[in-house]
Design brief:
With about 325 residues, the chain is an alpha/beta fold. About 35% of the residues lie in helices and about 15% in strands. The chain folds into 2 domains: about 210 residues, Rossmann fold (3-Layer(aba) Sandwich); about 90 residues, UDP-galactose 4-epimerase, domain 1 (Alpha-Beta Complex).
């Protein structure tokens, strides 16, 4: 796959988990890369060793002048900037929606004003709250089950972003592709996501692994089912969808390997040499029982995940175990104030 056709590339949210891996891949392929991020939840250290190989603009995606300046001279925009983290959905829905909607409008306006050729935006599997079939195809209905529940600030923001990308750009010749990620994971993804959260909690409960059998609280019963996609496979999918996908189309990126959260907890524990006894606790309102994508559409373009969940979880858990004291990083990855 030839990436040179992307030309000069802007990645918004480029110091975040997914963005940083995308930036690394683009640099490896010899592309001219610019990163825009305010580092509110991202961290420039994710790109250590590469700082002389890309241009970094520390700016807020909600500021149009800054966004316009960052977009100037670019051929392709990957728009990833968004506020993630389930706790933020409940406690900071105003910020989640504000960044989501303003960021989409600003990046689209800037891209159209400056004649950007390609615009790829990351949406989310969260747009599927009540999927009618599993694996779920891209033409599945999208709904907000309860508009009063702040949990849906994130999925609502992603739905609005998709609508803007597809229809706000109607008068433009810009190629627009929507990428719907399904639970990307890997080293240095932060601490607010399920795999590192489980790993860090198990590490603490087992006294660093000294205690080999522990009780482990889990939200709900753990019967909820998800699929997980390693970040290396995810970046492959993002590039395939953007380069080979058709304009005004939506592409799932993930795997069809589905498992329960209960089984995921045991998989994390196995990778740490632990035995766990799961303790059910209250489940936060607004969760989805089962979610897994069909990847047939992007598969026709050549996308094929290579990293098994067992292999990926083991390497991810090992990375977190190697990090020592992560208190400061966990605080940064927590609730926004």
């Amino acid at each position: 796959m030839n990436l040179k056709g992307l030309g000069k590339v802007l990645v918004t949210g480029g110091t975040g988990f997914v963005g940083s891996y995308l930036v690394k891949r683009l640099i490896e392929e010899g592309l001219d890369v610019r990163v825009m991020d305010n580092n509110l939840r991202g961290d420039l250290s994710r790109l250590d060793g590469l700082k002389d190989k890309f241009e970094f603009i520390e700016a807020d995606i909600c500021d149009y002048a800054d966004t316009l300046a960052a977009t100037r001279g670019m051929d392709t925009v990957f728009h990833l900037a968004f506020i993630n983290g389930t706790k933020n959905f409940y406690e900071n829905p105003d910020k989640v929606l504000g960044v989501g909607v303003k960021g989409a409008i600003n990046t689209l306006d800037a891209a159209m004003e400056l004649g950007v050729k390609n615009y790829a935006v990351t949406s989310s599997s969260e747009v599927y709250q009540e999927p009618t079939h599993i694996p779920t195809t891209e033409d599945e209905r999208i709904i907000i089950p309860d508009i009063m529940n702040p949990r849906y600030s994130y999925s609502g923001g992603k739905i609005i972003t998709e609508l803007l990308a597809l229809h706000y750009t109607k008068s433009s010749n810009m190629k627009v592709v929507i990428l719907r990620p399904h639970n990307f994971y890997g080293a240095n993804m932060g601490y607010g996501h399920v795999i590192p959260h489980f790993a860090m909690k198990m590490r603490a409960a087992s006294n660093g692994g000294d205690v080999k059998e522990i009780d482990f609280p889990i939200q709900g019963t753990g019967e909820e089912e998800r699929s997980f996609c390693h970040i290396d496979d995810a970046v492959d999918g993002m590039l395939i969808g953007t380069i080979l996908g058709e304009s005004n189309n939506i592409y799932h990126i993930g795997t069809e390997e589905i498992l329960s959260i209960r089984d995921l907890a045991h998989l994390v524990a196995d990778s740490m040499g632990l035995k766990i006894n799961l303790i059910p606790t209250a489940l936060m309102e607004g969760g989805t029982p089962k979610r897994c994508p069909s990847i047939a559409k992007i598969g026709k373009l050549g996308y094929k995940p290579k990293i098994s969940l067992r292999e990926g979880v083991a390497s991810t858990v090992a990375w977190y175990a190697s990090q020592g004291d992560t208190t400061a990083l966990q605080q940064k990855d927590g609730i926004l104030k």
